[in-house]
Amino acid sequence: MNVTTVFGLIISLFLLVAAIIIGAGTTDIFINLPGALIVLGGTFGATLISYPLKDVVRVFWVFVVVFRREEPRLDQYIRLIVNFAIRARSGMLNLEAELPRIKNMFLKDGIQMLVDGYSPEEIREMLDSRTHYRETRELSEAQIYRSMASFAPAFGMVGTLIGLIAMLLNMSPDRLSNIGPQMAIALVTTFYGLILANLIFKPIALKLERKTEEAVLLQNMITDSVIMIQKEWHPQKVEDYLNSYVPPHIRTRMVKRQSY
Q1: What pLDDT, on a 0 to 100 scale, did the predictor assign at position 209?
Q2: Between 33-50 and 120-169, two packed helices, what is the crossing angle to 10 degrees?
Q3: What span, in angstroms and rounded, lies between the C-alpha atoms of 68 and 2?
Q4: 8 Å CB contact between 227 and 120
Q5: Which entry of 21, 112, 179, 228 is 20 to 30 Å from 164 by CA?
Q6: Residue 67, Cβ neighbours under 10 Å: how many?
């Protein structure tokens, strides 16, 4: 479970409800089922028009990904890879015993390619292709959420206009005192649209884009690592090269410094 994401969502909702209660004295005025249906129905309808059904269905599963635990840090992978480089100095087949213990499938496939005797060019081409297609796929998923973030406020305004039109049609001299409450109800749909866009859809899109950036960086690091091991780089050189991927304060120093 991604604690920061869950905490951010809970604290945002708590402060929002607290502000409503302090400012309006009640939350009843913000409950408008027809307005919610207009915003949600319009947003998802426009999304279905804009994207294939299979892509829209997939983004609901992606929503769960946002709440998953974060990937291990890069420095943890550096330690693992340096150990592989040390073992590989006695022969690539020594890495085969490590395969069942590797959880990251991209790294596992890269090490399997080493064991199978692929050339550096073949390894680079295949791993780079996987990274490219993963980045393209995940950024397209984030783009769907960005589209939903743009649709929601628009349909919030549609709901407000519908409420205003209904209010004006029913306006009469003996009902002028109801204009204020009816106007408030009409504006609630705009509120729904803005909250969905800026608290749900847009943050999810940003989170997915950030996860994709981190995944691409990790996979690029793994690709470089596998190539270096295949070319029989000294573990110290491998470690020094991979440390360029991480900030100075978390760089590893596993291999004893020596000339090579």
Answers
A1: 92
A2: 140
A3: 5
A4: yes
A5: 21
A6: 13
